[in-house]
Amino acid sequence: MNWLAHLLLSEPTPAFRIGNLLPDLVSISALTGLAPEYQRGIRQHRRIDAYTDAHPVFRRSIQRLGPQFRRVGGILVDMFYDHFLSCEWQRYATKSLPDFTAEVYASFETHRTEIPVEAHQPLEWMKRGNWLCSYGDVQDLSHTLVRMSRRFRRPVDLVGSVVILEREYAGFSDDFAAFFPDLREHAERVECPVSA
Q1: What's this model's pTM, rounded to 2 decimal places?
Q2: Domain boundaries, the chain
Q3: Can you tell me the distance from the alpha carbon of 130 to that of 101, in angstroms, rounded to the nearest whole number?
């Protein structure tokens, strides 16, 4: 799952939420030595990713993309699912999306001294561009995919997948609706004990 889902499925503490973002933002070596409350979020991130990658509905969504996007299918479906989560936010959350994301963004600054330096810039970009609120609009999602495609060594046309999202919109939407409750139940069931 992508960032919005990771945050929603976090315990509602700033350190846990930030920890649940960090594995996508910094190197593995930068994660070592962080305080236990961040480590719990990091472990939750990895559990969510492992469960998601193995789930048959998630795999079905990847198949919808066809062979052209098979190599990056997991990344794209993560983004598409955050789109549907954003569109259906009130169904899954008690706080409005703008209020929730404002709370998350505020925590980036208050916890800045405790997190790896290499996370500072990505978190600032996320906040400044209000990325977490942008997934619900397909055009904004396209802009996000343009940004993401620049992170690959070789060019990858992630934006081309939006045509498939629009064509198969009902199918992806049904997949998300079937998958997300399973993921939420899994995330709530899994304990993330503090390391000694």
Answers
A1: 0.91
A2: 3-189
A3: 8
